Amino acid sequence: MSQSSELKQVLRGVMLFAGLSDTELETIAAICKERKLGRGEVLAEQGAPGDDFFVVTNGFLEISVAGGDNASQVLVNLGKGQIIGEMALIDQGPRSATVRAVSEAVVQVIHRGDFEALCDKNTRIGYIVMKDIAADLSFKLRHRNMTIG
Q1: Which CATH number fits domain 3-148: 2.60.120.10, 2.40.360.10, 3.40.50.720, 3.30.70.270?
Q2: What is the pLDDT of residues 65-75, one digit of tens each?
């Protein structure tokens, strides 16, 4: 399997891209930039501005938040096909967590500016991805409210 068809397969499994055609997935793949990470390398730092969205294509990443006494709490480990930083596609707010490679890892980086330019050319892709982001956020908020109450 070629690297581009392998990337398209990974992107097909990303829920933010659910509903996109093969041609549209190829368009997304064309704006992806591969980044390799060594074990322990930080991909994104909590509090830093976020301009990039990431799709894990190999290895594992640890998501953690700063706690009291300079301790950090690991929230989750993410692997192949999982995403980080989707809010960077919407705003330029600070990162809500630190992302660090727990093994050698490879991610696909989608820069917000590249995504916005793509959406200007193809509003259907923008609509579907933003709808999927809204659905994901709605699910997370609903789940959070159920566990708090």
Answers
A1: 2.60.120.10
A2: 887 677 788 88
